[in-house]
Amino acid sequence: MLRTLSRVSELPIVVKQLQKNAAQAGVSKTNNYATEATVQVNRPFKLHRLDEGPETTVKLTKDEALKYYTQMQTIRRIETAAGNLYKEKIIRGFCHLYSGQEACAVGMKAAMRDVDNIISAYRVHGWTYLMGVPPAGVLCELTGVQGGCARGKGGSMHMYAPNFFGGNGIVGAQVPLGTGVALACKYKGNGGMCLALYGDGAANQGQVFEAYNMAYLWKLPVIFVCENNNYGMGTSAERASCNTDYYTRGDALPGIWVDGMDVLAVRSATEFAIDYVNKNGPLIMETNTYRYSGHSMSDPGTSYRTREEIQEVRQKRDPITSFKEMCIELGLINADEIKAIDLKVRKEVDEATAVAKSDSELAPSHLWTDVYSNNLETKIRGTIAYDIDHVSERKGVNH
Amino acid sequence: MFAWGVNCRNIRQHNMKVSVNLARGLFNALKTAPPALARSHFTYYPTTATSDKGDLQKMNMFQAINQAMDIALDEDPSALLFGEDVGFGGVFRCSMNLRDKYGKQRVFNTPLCEQGIAGFAIGVANAGATAIAEIQFADYIFPAFDQIVNEAAKYRYRSGGMYDCGSLTIRAPCGAVGHGALYHSQSPEAYFAHTPGLKVVIPRGPIKAKGLLLACIKDPNPCIVFEPKTLYRAAVEQVPTGVYTSELGKADILREGNDVTLIGWGTQVHVLLEVADLAKKELNVDCEVIDLVSILPWDRDTVCNSASKTGRVVVAHEAPYTQGFGSELAAYIQEKCFLRLEAPVKRVTGWDTPFPHVFEPFYLPDKHRCLAAVKDIVNY
Ligand SMILES: Cc1ncc(C[n+]2csc(CCOP(=O)(O)OP(=O)(O)O)c2C)c(N)n1
Ligand SMILES: [Mg+2]
């Protein structure tokens, strides 16, 4: 199924466009498969204080299609592996899965340039992988072993990579931080911008509004991205927010509503937004999405919504299935290629899982490393009988 | 530049040396810890209710807290209960069924906005109603810090006594739980103890939790109850079902002894009770164990009487060493009991590092570190 049922009528247009495009551009075909297609985004964008919005007709090359599919599938498998590791009690504590929301991250990443940055909350396993950490680095961080991208010192919510300022456990705190990153981009004049991600629940934190205001005053290149998955823990968006049109909540800030289950729509909106914020200052982008799992592993996720609701989204709007089917229908990817990717992804994540299970924790002496850069007192206080020096082990990637 | 490089290496070498010592202690800790690891860095010592308290019922700590709030809502029609997911019972089930019983006008969910929750609660209390606000984890209380410290604590003083928010009680789960890592484990009591105008208490189990919560709700000052989250289910006692309060500002002597005074609060009390057993068995040292219960105001008489009797005091808490509440106790004891002390007051605490993820068992002032402190202080 290419589109949700109500949009079946759009199908012929897409196919026609594809044919036209292939004919006009003389796109080469190998084995009767296209190498490029023109696609209409799933659902129209909604705009706030904007005269023009993102492109609704977008190009998709075969390479891109393969890449996005691989990325989304890898995230899904990492999350499945994480869920299993948690159930096996190998991951302890907190573990927030991103399954269902893959198209948001993959779409944004597809539009990001090398100079661009991102900061998010705690649902970041997928983002960490997209920003360059291999699946083993993600899963090892989750199991708290030294192969983790934060050496096991951060755990589920705290993963980092160059240009990725991480996972944050304090809901909303990352939004002003991202705005500060944008200020630095502007000041340095490097042409970069920052995506500051938060959820529909976090959208009600006061500091989010403080950040909007500063960003607008100073025309900062920041895209405030509200990933609206309809729930903040057990509280549905309507019960927590007086206005659930999150893209309009910035007052003077313009906003875009995006179908967050459509990777191409997210990419298109992000491309538009990157250009916009660099020229004009901040913008809010609401990606309408859904999380399949509970809030975290300790939440079965079914007490405040029905199983049918989850099932319906899985069947009708799943970002991976819908993208896969579209690519097959467009002739960009064939079933064999899909199978090959699935196998490769499964193998990579299985191997990463094995590493996450077998790798060892850092030695206890790392408890007191990297508290400060240059600890003026040199000793870490607080122990009886032990006299411990502070050690600064790692130099930040941001220097 | 070069000098710094050399310096760095020296530090590292030196560090290797001391860590052998440390590793030995840590290894012992590991060996004796049950496989569930840090989940149970303590053994729970239940309190027995005195016989004059009427009917008893077996309850864990979240049930006792639930009953306290049930009583408060029942007795006081102006009482309101709110916080993130509180309407559904809260993440730790403390407010279970209360919305059904008292209606969603009185028991409700707030959006995710701690500063707003605290400010809102202060306003409610200013207007004379009773506000019981939950901050989902003590680690999330910092967005509300300004409201609590600058508004709640100072309202009475700055209005010359015309207004106050005395009917405000804030509850927040605190402390180590075995797997909470940086943002679900902290014990921020000392930050609030630095603020005249507030009262701060920490229960060690169900009986105390219910009594303290009811006392805080009734007390005409803004109060904060930090509830050790690891005790919500693990701590089970025979709790009196009726209305009773535990006196604020009053410490409990849980075990009498003549050689060393051990002071703690919350979960740490149970660690210290076990340490007292070990000290008796292994060192033949007789420990007096005090649950401070109330951080602000704290029970100076009980503490100083005990310090004067034993001459040796060990204070233990999960929060870091520097400026932990143990610092205040140590300073005060040394000032008031100087001539009676046989050794400097010792503090066994979390380390001056962020609360760690995988290193929690090494961070906590567990029984091994506390027992080592007892050994040190008797041999001083
Ligand atoms: C300051 C703060 N308050 C509360 C929490 C507890 N908490 C963690 S996630 C969450 C819900 C957030 O929902 P949302 O922003 O929609 O993100 P989602 O989980 O849906 O991705 C809450 C209440 C926290 N981590 N930090
Ligand atoms: Mg949400």
Q: What is this structure's SSE topology?
A:
The complex is a heterodimer of chains A (399) and B (380).
Chain A: H1 11-25, E1 36-40, E2 46-48, E3 57-61, H2 62-87, H3 102-111, E4 117-119, H4 125-130, H5 135-143, H6 174-188, E5 194-199, H7 206-217, E6 222-228, E7 231-232, E8 235-236, H8 237-240, E9 255-259, H9 263-280, E10 283-288, H10 307-317, H11 319-330, H12 335-358, E11 379-380, E12 388-389
Parallel strand pairs in A: 4-5, 5-6, 6-10, 9-10
Antiparallel strand pairs in A: 1-3, 2-9, 7-8, 11-12
Helix pairs in contact in A: 2-3, 2-5, 2-11, 2-12, 3-9, 5-12, 6-7
Chain B: H1 2-32, E1 56-60, H2 61-75, E2 80-83, H3 98-102, E3 107-109, H4 114-126, E4 131-134, H5 145-152, H6 155-158, E5 168-174, H7 189-193, E6 199-201, H8 206-218, E7 223-228, H9 231-234, E8 236-240, E9 252-255, E10 260-264, H10 268-283, E11 287-291, E12 294-296, H11 300-310, E13 313-320, H12 325-336, E14 346-350, H13 360-363, H14 367-378
Parallel strand pairs in B: 2-3, 2-4, 4-5, 5-7, 6-7, 10-11, 10-13, 13-14
Antiparallel strand pairs in B: 1-8, 6-12, 9-11
Helix pairs in contact in B: 2-8, 4-5, 10-14
Magnesium ion (MG) binds next to strand 7 of chain A.
- Percent helix of chain A, as a range, is 40-55%
Let me know the largest β-sheet of chain A: 6 strands, mixed
- CATH domain fold name of the largest domain in chain A: Rossmann fold
Oligomer: heterodimer
Biggest sheet descriptor of chain B: 7 strands, mixed
- Strand order in the largest sheet of chain A: 2-9-10-6-5-4
Low-confidence stretches of chain A: 1-28
Q: Helix- and strand-based class of chain A?
A: alpha/beta
Return the CATH topology of the largest domain in chain B.
Rossmann fold
Span of the ends, CA to CA of chain B: 43 Å
| Cα-atom radius of gyration of chain A | 22 Å
Distance between the termini of chain A: 48 Å
Would you identify the CATH H-level superfamily of the largest domain in chain A?
Thiamin diphosphate (ThDP)-binding fold, Pyr/PP domains
Largest interface: A-B, 54 and 55 residues
Spatial strand sequence of the major β-sheet of chain B? 3-2-4-5-7-6-12
Domains of chain A (count): 2
Q: How many β-strand runs of chain A?
A: 12
Coarse shape of chain B: globular
**Highest CATH level, the class of the largest domain in chain A:** Alpha Beta
Radius of gyration of chain B: 21 Å
